[in-house]
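ARCHIVE CARD
CATEGORY: sequence design from structure
SOURCE FIELD: tokenized fold
FIELD CONTENT:
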């Protein structure tokens, strides 16, 4: 049996790229072995860890891409007497042209459906199952559920712009997030909204908003027993969870620390002001600290998803529809006048 990285051509794995381990299992007579159980192991020194078990296709092929790509030594095993050679995967820095990535990922792309198109410093090509986008010296892959959404937003020449990396999976709740120059696409099969998009001119600002949109429609079953309460470890009656919600967004996006985390809302406000990232004007992706009960005193928080005129639309937790306080509460998009916002704060994108 065999093992290789991607298509076997140009097997470098650059930073922020995903990779696939692939191979073929044949019978002793040299015919493809279908439905063979393949175990993939990762070696670190003398330690061996099984990272995946899968079965071969009708043609004897197996293919696996780790949710969290890691350098290391890998081997595929069918039995104690049938295994591949060990193969080393090592992260590199460097350049990657569209032609190079096409050669490396040809097994995944399908047939080309367009020629190479260009706009400014961006070049892209569409395939039956993917799109490759080159910006500057790097080329990124868009595929799966992210692909149809990306194309519906006009791809590289649309509002999202070029990718800044391949999709990142292995996030909490099995989420997958792909960042673009001016936006983000988030996929989470467990969320109320399975695929969400956000657009922001600030690089990275859309990531948390895309995650926030996926949670719209979530409702706590019992007051103060939301999943955000459980995540932070506070489920007592006084523990309102609007602050827990915005902190959870950073956790779900794979950016712990991007939003401050505190079990006390007054302590969160104090830490936010001390952090020195506050602002007076709204922007998509900024946190909005709201004077919920009275103007000038922050007692609630959400994340800005839209700005128009004197109003902002925020995704907020621990509110009822329309931003009220009826029970049960959940996650909702709320339209608020800017006069109700005490201050804004930028997460660390």
């Amino acid at each position: 049996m065999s093992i290789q990285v991607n298509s076997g051509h140009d097997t470098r794995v650059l930073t922020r790229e995903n990779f696939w381990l692939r191979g073929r299992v044949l019978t002793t007579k040299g015919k493809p072995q279908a439905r063979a159980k393949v175990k993939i192991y990762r070696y670190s020194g003398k330690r061996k860890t099984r990272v995946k078990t899968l079965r071969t296709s009708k043609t004897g092929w197996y293919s696996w891409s780790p949710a969290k790509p890691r350098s290391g030594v890998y081997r595929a095993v069918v039995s104690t007497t049938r295994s591949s050679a060990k193969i080393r995967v090592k992260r590199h820095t460097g350049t990657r042209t569209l032609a190079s990535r096409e050669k490396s990922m040809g097994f995944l792309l399908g047939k080309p459906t367009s020629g190479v198109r260009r706009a400014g410093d961006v070049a892209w090509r569409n395939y039956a199952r993917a799109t490759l986008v080159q910006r500057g010296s790097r080329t990124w892959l868009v595929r799966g559920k992210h692909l149809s959404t990306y194309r519906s937003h006009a791809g590289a020449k649309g509002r999202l712009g070029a990718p800044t990396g391949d999709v990142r999976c292995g996030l909490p709740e099995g989420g997958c997030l792909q960042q673009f120059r001016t936006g983000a696409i988030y996929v989470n099969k467990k969320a109320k909204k399975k695929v969400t998009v956000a657009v922001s001119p600030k690089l990275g600002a859309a990531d948390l908003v895309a995650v926030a949109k996926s949670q719209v429609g979530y409702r706590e079953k019992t007051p103060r027993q939301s999943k955000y309460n459980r995540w932070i470890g506070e489920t007592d009656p006084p523990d309102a969870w609007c602050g827990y919600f915005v902190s959870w967004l950073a956790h779900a996006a794979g950016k712990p620390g991007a939003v401050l985390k505190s079990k006390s809302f007054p302590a969160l406000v104090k830490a936010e002001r001390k952090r020195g990232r506050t602002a007076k004007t709204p922007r998509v992706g900024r946190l909005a600290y709201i004077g919920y009960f009275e103007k000038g005193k922050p007692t609630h928080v959400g994340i800005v998803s839209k700005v128009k005129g004197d109003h902002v639309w925020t995704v907020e937790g621990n509110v009822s529809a329309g931003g009220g306080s009826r029970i049960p509460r959940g996650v909702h998009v709320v339209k608020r006048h800017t006069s109700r916002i005490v201050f804004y704060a930028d997460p660390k994108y």
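CARD ANNOTATION: The helical segments are 98-104, 106-109, 144-152, 205-214, 227-232, 242-252, 265-275. Residues 258 and 348 are 4 Å apart (CA to CA).
SHELF: design records, drawer C
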